[in-house]
Design brief:
This protein is mostly helical. It has a domain at 3-123: Arc Repressor Mutant, subunit A (Orthogonal Bundle), CATH 1.10.10. It has helices at residues 3-7, 10-19, 26-32, 38-50, 81-86, 89-111, 134-152, and strands spanning 23-25, 54-62, 65-72. A 3-stranded antiparallel β-sheet has the order 1-3-2. A hairpin with a 2-residue loop joins strand 2 (54-62) and strand 3. Helix 3 packs across helix 4. The longest helix is centred in the middle third of the chain and has 23 residues, at 89-111. The chain is globular. 13% of the residues are buried. The model has no long low-confidence stretch (mean pLDDT 89).
């Protein structure tokens, strides 16, 4: 299965999000996604493992069954630039719909927790429409990468909570033709 098809499912995408920086068993993943049946989670974990996105790091016998510990292979959990460039508009529509479905499911799961406190957790979902030249856009993307990239390597720790950060960026209007009246 190609990476786009493998990662292009909301449940598999949620599993990938849950695995970042962790080693987890299938039972632990089921507990993190309780609204999805265990059989479904197991099936998607098997697909991710077969596709090389998840790697078995340990196996133990627990009550007669084999319990596997998985870790995410970050290099296999992304769509590379060449693949992204080859996508059709319909591929982008499907990919965006999957990402939004997974994002909505994650947000609903957060809100359904007994201790959810959006104000205290600094939850944000603002949208800003900004006017940028190509150079300004590239500069802003670079600054965002500089701010985010170092934190991607943070391991889990007792004083850390995992946050889902989903920058979404696309032009909302055609560039104006000719000089603008102002």
């Amino acid at each position: 299965m190609d990476p786009l098809e493998l990662l292009g499912h909301p449940i598999r995408l949620r599993i990938v999000h849950a695995m970042r920086g962790r080693t987890l068993t299938t039972s632990q993943l089921c507990a993190r996604i309780p609204e999805v049946s265990k059989a479904t989670v197991y099936r998607h974990i098997d697909l991710l493992a077969a596709g090389g996105v998840l790697q078995v790091t340990d196996e133990r016998r627990v009550r007669g069954a084999v319990e596997r510990h998985y870790r995410l292979r970050q290099d296999r959990a992304t769509i590379d630039a060449a693949t992204a460039e080859s996508l059709t508009p319909d591929d982008h529509r499907r990919g965006f719909a999957v990402a939004m479905t997974a994002l909505l499911a994650e947000f609903n799961a957060y809100l359904d927790r007994d201790h959810a406190d959006p104000a205290a957790d600094l939850v944000g979902y603002r949208q800003h429409a900004v006017w940028l030249s190509r150079d300004e856009l590239l500069e802003m993307i670079g600054q965002m990468r500089q701010a985010i990239a170092p934190r991607l390597a943070n391991p889990p720790a007792p004083d850390r909570a995992q946050y889902l950060l989903s920058p979404i960026l696309f032009p909302v209007d055609e560039p104006p033709a000719g000089p603008q009246a102002g």
